[in-house]
Amino acid sequence: MSDEANLLYMLAALVFGYLLGSIPFGLIFTRMAGLGDVRKIGSGNIGATNVLRTGRKGIAAATLLGDMLKGTAAVAIAALWGPQFAIVAGLGAFFGHLFPVWLGFKGGKGVATFIGVLLGLKPLAALIFALIWLGIAFTSRYSSLSALIASAATPIILWLLGEPGMAGLAIILAALLWWKHSQNISRLLAGTEGKIGQKG
Asked: Which of 70, 110, 142, 192 is 20 to 30 A removed from 64 (C-alpha atoms)?
């Protein structure tokens, strides 16, 4: 493949991933359920944790699954072109979730999509991420703290699994995830962060 063709495929993978990642499942599902605009409750986030604050566990679970699988789908489809395109599509999907064009570039915080991208690239890493998240969530009841610790561990996990390219992607995703959680970090330090299942 020529350099020009490779660049074109890279751009296509990035845009494809972005468009998939920008689908706001939390907003779509809550509106379909007659719950209104999820951005007007709790943290104002469109992700599953905030959807859970509506009290509708089924809708929150559907949001989590949708946000995960859009990352997985982007990676799996782009992988048909080659592994490097899968990584680029994963980056695009994550950006799409964080900055969806349909919502004025104000999206979610990326945890579910992070897991979905990992699931498409390296299922074992996704499993380890989920186990770390569950362990921290069970002991602390803080979704944000669980995501911060699990995402920070992911680049190391991928490196140890012999995937330096994926580890590089995970560093970028984790940095963005931490940035999107900056207010959560401030609340955690202040002891005012909301816990899992707590209604806003």
From this structure: 192
Which two structure tokens, joined as six digits, stand for 114? 């992070």
Per-residue tokens: 166: 């994926």
pLDDT in tens, 139-182: 998 989 999 999 999 999 999 999 999 999 999 999 999 999 99
Contacts 24+ apart (CB under 8 A), 87-90: 87/121, 87/165, 87/166, 87/169, 88/10, 88/13, 88/14, 88/17, 89/13, 89/14, 89/16, 89/17, 90/17, 90/117, 90/120, 90/121, 90/169, 90/173
SS3 state of residue 22: coil
Question: DSSP state, 41?
Answer: S
Supply 76's token pair.
């799996």
Q: How far apart are CA 180 and CA 178, in angstroms?
A: 5
Helices (H), 79-163: 83-98, 111-121, 123-140, 143-160
CA distance 25 to 83: 27
